[in-house]
Amino acid sequence: MCFPIFHAWLTLLFFRLCAVTLRSRPPLVYCVSRTARTASLLSAAPQLTQRYETSLEKNMSTKVAVVTGSNKGIGLSIVRALCKQYQGDVYLTARDTGRGQEAVESLSSEGLKAMFHQLDINDLNSITTAAAFFKDKYGGVDVLINNAGIAFKGGDDDIMSTLPPSLCLSLSSGADTTAFAVQAEVTLKTNFFATRDMLTHFLPIIKAGGRVVNVSSFVGARTLNQCSPDHQQRFRSEDITEEELVGMMQQFVDEAKKGEHKKGGWPDTAYGMSKTGVTTLSMIHARQLSKERPNDGILLNACCPGWVRTDMAGPKAPKSPDEGAITPVYLALLPPGATEPHGKFVSDKEVQPW
Ligand SMILES: NC(=O)c1ccc[n+]([C@@H]2O[C@H](COP(=O)([O-])OP(=O)(O)OC[C@H]3O[C@@H](n4cnc5c(N)ncnc54)[C@H](OP(=O)(O)O)[C@@H]3O)[C@@H](O)[C@H]2O)c1
Known about the structure:
8 strands; eight-stranded mixed β-sheet; binds NADP nicotinamide-adenine-dinucleotide phosphate; alpha/beta; 2 domains; about 350 residues
């Protein structure tokens, strides 16, 4: 190979390596014939850099919304609504890639374009991988909806305890008989501790003007009123810290495992306690954002979707999943410049007492 061509080839290799290092989609212009003239190759090099930078800037300025646990139920309906209303990329995420991709295809058959990323909120590695992906590709996240959650079917008094006893009984057939100690540990692990892990890793990459929505439940608000007066006072206080809240949630689990949770001032509902924790955590994080990023205009709220017909709540619930998505999507799309709600518990688009 004569020296000028070899030199040009080396120059191109250098630019290509830069692109790979920065993990951008390599522009097509990198496919250059080795027989091209040295001079034209060298003069093309700055253009390559420019095209690469332009494509990177385009990604960074594209807005992005991420919804956890969105392969079915309310999460899928949230993604559906965002695909119709949000000016940006919308990510359906799921712990199981197959179920997630099937859901993306079902939306595609409705003419809607959702993107997919695997995300199991119980797996710290999955959370950090996803956070790194969004930081790298978009410079952060504009909208985060923490929707993923679990409930033992009628195992403790969760969702059904809000219903008239007759309806409750009819729904309770086939209720889960898993020991309360196990229900407490497993439910809190996903609904509270894993949601907190999501927030730990995603809050630092929420962009200015961002919106964060934690899907909690009216059951959590009612459960708060069933805690001991001391616990209630701490959950409602303005100075409760994240560490103190985590300690309280762990104390509930530990005492449930010893069969002593009632003596400790906790009610008999694992799902309810997990959602009391999610709402309180939302209030703590909102106060932190106001203090630490006062000029970024980020709004963070907890909400209840209502009682919704999903695998979790069963077929007799009054709201369809699309109706259940209305309040979370309303909070996710609060207009630029809005200053409230922030740090609230919202149901049917209205701030609720806590
Ligand atoms: N339905 C109601 O009446 C109601 C009322 C109040 C609040 N909520 C809340 O609304 C949210 C959605 O509930 P839903 O009724 O739509 O329930 P659902 O139909 O059971 O859907 C729950 C979703 O969460 C996902 N998920 C569970 N664990 C996960 C994990 N570790 N990582 C990632 N995703 C996970 C599930 O994925 P898989 O398919 O892989 O299991 C599924 O996509 C929950 O937070 C729930 O507590 C529901």
